[in-house]
Every structure is written in structure tokens, then in C-alpha cells.
Specification:
Blueprint lengths: L1 E2 L6 E2 L3 E3 L2 E3 L1 H4 L7 H11 L8 E6 L3 E12 L12 E9 L7 E5 L3 E3 L1
Antiparallel strand pairs: 1-2, 3-4, 5-6, 5-9, 6-7, 7-8
Length: 114
């Protein structure tokens, strides 16, 4: 019995990739030779905000813009987001100023859950 590198349970190893043991249940979840999938799966699990979350928005993490709802998440550079630093499109519902657009893109440090 060895510690499975994925589920962290003591189990019989079914496969070993890059010196790490995986049990039968976890072995099929990952393909050998593609360590970037491990990293991407971790990053996707740690996205701090999700579609539908109510957030307080601040430009440059300082200037209060208002409160809104996350409508979209970008991780593919389309609107400035990356897998490490995603961007969030927020529809502002309570604006601090009337001339602000209805939707704006923010990064993580500019948002806070309400």
C-alpha cells in the first residue's frame, strides 16, 4: 500500500507517473505525459468567483464602482484573463456613478464577495 498522489488515500498503486503513485480510481483521471492537465485542473478548482456571485467592484482595487453580479469568466486572454489570473465580467446593478457602463471586466483583486 502506498499513498495515492491524487486522492491522498493509502491504496494499492495501479500506475506510477513521474515517480508518483495513483490508485485504480484515480489512475484514469489523468493522462501520463501531460502534467499541464494537473496544473490546469488545480487552477480551475481555485477560481475565486463564479457566475452568479454578487460582488463589490473597485477600479484598480481602490475606486468603488458599485455592486454587481459575475456574468462571465475569461481565462483565455480574450478579455485579459489568464488561467492564473482570470478576468470577470460583472453587470453592475448598484453603480456609484450614473455614467459607469452597465458591464465591466475586473480581475480578482478588484472584487470582493458581498
Amino acid at each position: 500500500m502506498k499513498l495515492c498522489a491524487s486522492c491522498k488515500q493509502m491504496r494499492e498503486p495501479a500506475a506510477t507517473y513521474d515517480g508518483l503513485d495513483y490508485c485504480q480510481d484515480c489512475e484514469g483521471e489523468f493522462s501520463p505525459g501531460q502534467p499541464e492537465l494537473f496544473g490546469l485542473a488545480y487552477l480551475m478548482a481555485t477560481v475565486p468567483f463564479h457566475v452568479g456571485d454578487k460582488v463589490e467592484c473597485r477600479t484598480a482595487a481602490t475606486l468603488y464602482d458599485g455592486i454587481g453580479t459575475v456574468e462571465e469568466i475569461d481565462i483565455d486572454f480574450k478579455m485579459g484573463g489568464t488561467p492564473v489570473f482570470p478576468a470577470f465580467r460583472v453587470r453592475l446593478e448598484e453603480k456609484s456613478q450614473e455614467d459607469l457602463p452597465d458591464e465591466l471586466w475586473y480581475v480578482e483583486n478588484c472584487l470582493k464577495l458581498v
